[in-house]
Amino acid sequence: MSIVRVELGPRAYDVRIEAGLIGRAAQHLAPLAPNGRAFVVTDQNVAAAQGARLTQGLSGLATETVTIPAGEASKSWEMLAFVTDRLLALGIERGEPIIAFGGGVVGDLAGFAAAILQRGTPYVQVPTSLLAMVDSSVGGKTAIDVSAGKNLIGAFHQPRLVLIDPEALATLAARQMRAGYAEIVKAALIGDPAFFDWLEANGASVLAGAPDALAHAIAASVAFKAAIVAEDERETSGRRALLNLGHTFAHAIEAEAGFSDDVLHGEAVAAGLALAFDLSVRRGLCAPEDAARVGRHLRATGLPASLADLGIAATGASLAGRMASDKKKAGGRVAFILARGIGRAFVDRDVELEAVAKFLDSAAAGALHPARGCDRQDQ
Ligand SMILES: NC(=O)c1ccc[n+]([C@@H]2O[C@H](COP(=O)([O-])OP(=O)(O)OC[C@H]3O[C@@H](n4cnc5c(N)ncnc54)[C@H](O)[C@@H]3O)[C@@H](O)[C@H]2O)c1
Ligand SMILES: O=C(O)C(=O)C[C@@H](O)[C@H](O)[C@H](O)COP(=O)(O)O
Ligand SMILES: [Zn+2]
């Protein structure tokens, strides 16, 4: 069992990581339920695979459940309206907790509903996918997707508590495990080279669900994210923007795929990580061997490391056009998270979208690493 505290002053909360926790959820949720009631938001797959465990774990509390269709398409205005309308119809009062029980889609949508319902309702994250356990359940980013782009409508709204039960992963599909693993790799690549070494040696065990490896990977990823969120809760200093490594590419790819589950967020992130390292090499910031190591590890764990691996045939111009609506834009220029090596990500505000478009086209043509190589100077 481990507990990571997200140190946010009056909004501080615990992330509890413990096998079997879902079956004991009421113990931790009862103090947050003033009327002895909790309002569960979940999706159809999670309800079928894990709902009975939560029902048993919540015994003693009265519960109401709102169930949405599974998949990225549910991060929509329509589903936000459905969830908030249902919660209001069920008579939720302002102090009563919403339980986001599912993957990142449920967490982002239920968290956003909690942020706006009656101008702010408490919520608890009970993540059931690997991605949600290691990333989306922590940090308070909530959002939906709109035609202009990914996560463009949302709010910062911190949960009161996060309950992570790795046993829930027993029913998660292997493809979804790999997608979540991409965000673990991201954490290591941003700022923890020793963790990346460990992942190279133990990634297969994590993906196979080996309890000790899984517990270590989850706890390390959560601790890494919690520390960054505590430093820069609302992504104002630039520190939290590092958690976007690979994401400017990923969000453009997801938009290109129509926010469908043809390309999962974690899969797009994996390709985005490889592209961010390749672009860093192209710009003379990073050693080609580091980018090669990243690509090798992603592919070794069954993740995509290029647009071709994802089956995305979009042009550089089309993807760069989508990047123009990225939230990390200031003065008309999109900031990119690049890397000077493994564990050495930084925010680069000096990247032209035209150059990124050219890079993507040449990457697609298989001409990634220019002869000039790179200098490894910090900039
Ligand atoms: N808020 C953040 O900080 C943050 C961070 C990373 C990602 N995200 C968002 O998270 C979303 C992706 O999350 P995801 O990968 O969890 O996708 P998801 O929520 O769609 O879940 C993946 C699939 O697995 C199913 N599932 C989940 N848990 C299961 C279980 N235990 N057993 C059986 N099936 C299960 C779901 O029903 C779904 O079909 C994206 O929208 C992404 O933008 C948000
Ligand atoms: O928590 C963060 O900060 C992240 O960037 C985590 C990302 O993995 C996640 O996908 C997040 O939703 C992206 O945020 P956005 O601000 O780029 O929408
Ligand atoms: Zn992400």
Element-by-element helix/strand order: EEHEHEHEHEHEEEHHHHHHHHEEEEH
- Give average pLDDT, whole number: 95
Sheet with the most strands: spatial strand order: 1-2-9-6-5-3-4
Main sheet specs = 7 strands, mixed
CATH architecture designation of the largest domain: 3-Layer(aba) Sandwich
Q: Assembly type of the shown chains? A: single chain
Description:
- This protein is α/β, with parallel strands linked by helices.
- It has 2 domains: 2-171, 3-Layer(aba) Sandwich (Rossmann fold), CATH 3.40.50; 199-364, Up-down Bundle (Dehydroquinate synthase-like, alpha domain).
- 45% of the residues lie in helices and 17% in strands.
- It has 14 helices and 13 strands.
- The strands form 4 sheets. It has a 7-stranded mixed beta sheet, sandwiched between helices.
- Helix 4 (104-116) links the parallel strand 5 and strand 6 (123-127).
- Helix 6 packs parallel to helix 10.
- Residues 135, 139, 141, 143, 151, 183, 240, 243-244, 247, 327 line the site of the ligand O=C(O)C(=O)C[C@@H](O)[C@H](O)[C@H](O)COP(=O)(O)O.
